[in-house]
Design brief:
It contains 17 helices and 20 strands. It is α+β, with helices and mostly antiparallel strands.
Length: about 525
């Protein structure tokens, strides 16, 4: 069954109701090697020339007329020809699906609902354009047009030397020579080329979302013999690329990278140290284990931290517990996939519990001290009893109950938080009770409120917070606050579920608060 999908191209008026499901997604990734093989490569700029759509329509029952083929015509000012049989000057340009920019030439993207950013900021400035010569879907138009139809077909001008080298027959020798700390933009592309066009860990594309759109499907030739050249970049002063160079070096050398990776555990750059820890852990390098806790200090980036925790935890060895404990207060946000939150503190806690059997509190110093004291206890049960006593960390110290609803106007603070009030909105009082035997610091209002029921799903929230937005709840005490819910959610069948997520631990404002999810219990009201 065809599904009407909408694709928006702001500048070129491509607001199209397309009949193929895939058109809502971004176009397939075009690699640098593929771009270098294009028949026409020019230095050009778009002079904000008028643009005109030329679409093919088809009648579709229930949808009316839908666009089945689309193209836009404008002109391109060619300043220099790098490759191809054309002359400099103004040329007609046909724009196909897969590329878009705004009327002022900025915001180059794929122009699709799954929007992927291009590699240049402004197409009115001289850029590299990779073009093909194609014909219109309209058979009455016999002209071959210069055509651009992918968001990667416009590249930064400083990459000219890279693409020229990539287009030569001896590219495997010419491209590596461009690797230099003096040209980070070109060297970044060279590094990716050396490892076959796909970044290795921890820079690899996330296959759960962007992998298909931001990386080639298949890895091309890997230039293993260029590892020493990459190491020279690692030992340079180029801070921007040293992390990626360490990653690529490990990819090119395989397990033989271990001796030099060990030397990076004392590096001044936290990212380089973190990458070294992850690579050494992946090779189960026991000789480095004792240095991991110190090496991960200062590795704060949430994405790298989550990936480090994953690799360390996969080792399944109690000797990786201390470096993972270091992340129990890292409230950075890396990603969210459904109910999977890439917050290092949460990931570390889950991984630590899987290895040790104990749910540690979100307190680094307390947890480290407790673990070091517990290590001499060889009996696992005795160790867990000890940890439970000196470093308790309840999975969730809270229970939340919903009170009666009201249908009155929200106060100004509530309106600011939720972004407006609708006719179907109902305000419900929530009581958040601390059932643990200890005081617990938490946000006064959850970061996210999520409603799910058989008829749908909806959420809203705000993850920013000041120091005043936190409070401490004593044992047996509670705080109350109101949340906005939909009336149709409240009337839904018993399968409905209300989740309150606390995702800000207050580290940036000097607080160490609990983070996690609380499911609200509904009473007879």
């Amino acid at each position: 069954m065809n599904t009407a999908c909408r694709v928006t191209s702001i500048s070129l008026c491509l607001a199209l109701a397309l009949t193929c499901r895939v058109f809502a997604m971004a176009p397939p990734y075009v690699s640098d090697e593929e771009l270098a093989a294009y028949p026409v490569i020019v230095v050009a700029k778009w002079d904000k020339a008028p643009a005109k759509s030329h679409n093919q329509y088809r009648d579709d029952d229930g949808l009316g007329q839908v666009v089945v083929k689309s193209e836009v015509y404008t002109s391109l000012n060619v300043l220099q020809v790098v490759k191809g049989n054309i002359e400099p000057g103004v040329h007609d340009l046909m724009i196909g699906w897969g590329i878009s920019w705004q009327e002022d030439g900025t915001w180059l993207t794929s122009g699709t609902s799954t929007e992927i950013l291009g590699d240049v900021k402004d197409v009115t400035e001289p850029c590299l354009w990779f073009l093909k010569q194609t014909r219109s879907w309209d058979e009455t138009r016999k002209t071959d047009y210069l055509t651009v139809s992918n968001y990667r077909e416009v590249q930064p001008l400083p990459l000219t030397t890279f693409f020229v080298a990539l287009g030569t027959a001896n590219r495997t020798t010419e491209v590596p020579r461009l690797l230099t700390p003096n040209d980070p933009l070109v060297s970044d592309r060279v590094l990716r080329y050396l490892c076959g066009g796909k970044w290795p860990w921890p820079y690899e594309a996330d296959e759960r979302f962007a992998g298909f759109y931001t990386t080639p499907r298949h890895r091309s030739l890997i230039l293993f013999l260029e590892a020493d050249r990459v190491w020279d970049l690692i030992t340079s002063d180029e801070k921007e690329l040293r992390g990626k160079a360490a990653s690529v070096y490990a990819e090119l050398k395989g397990k033989d990278c271990v001796p030099k990776m060990r030397t990076l555990l004392d590096d001044d750059d936290p990212a380089v140290r973190g990458i070294a820890v992850g690579i050494l852990a992946s090779y189960r390098d026991e000789a480095s284990l004792a240095r991991f806790p110190q090496a991960v200090e200062g590795v704060e980036d949430a994405v790298l931290a989550c990936k480090l925790i994953k690799i360390l935890s996969s080792w399944g060895d109690e000797r990786v517990v201390l470096p993972m404990i270091s992340y129990l207060q890292n409230g950075g946000f890396a990603y969210q996939y459904g109910n999977d939150f890439g917050i290092p503190a949460l990931k570390a806690r889950q991984a630590l519990e899987a290895i040790t059997g104990h749910a540690f509190p979100f307190d680094v110093e307390l947890s480290k001290k407790a673990w070091q004291q517990a290590l001499p206890l060889e009996d696992r049960a005795a160790r867990l009893r000890f940890l439970g006593k000196v470093a308790p960390g309840d999975e969730s110290p809270f229970v939340a109950r919903a009170g009666r609803d009201r249908r009155t106007e929200a106060d100004e603070k509530m309106k600011e938080r939720i972004g407006g009030v609708g006719e179907d909105d109902v305000f419900v009082t929530i009581g958040l009770f601390n059932l643990s035997p200890r005081p617990v610091t938490v946000l006064k209002y959850p970061s996210d409120v999520e409603m799910s029921w058989s008829g749908g799903n909806s959420s809203y929230g705000d993850r920013s917070a000041t120091k005043e937005d936190f409070t401490t709840i004593d044992p047996g005490e509670a705080i109350t606050f109101e949340v906005r819910l939909y009336e149709r959610f409240l009337r839904a069948d018993p399968s409905k579920r209300l989740r309150l997520r606390y995702l800000n631990n207050g580290r940036k404002v000097g607080v160490n608060a609990w983070i996690g999810t609380v499911i609200v219990k509904f009473g007879s009201e």
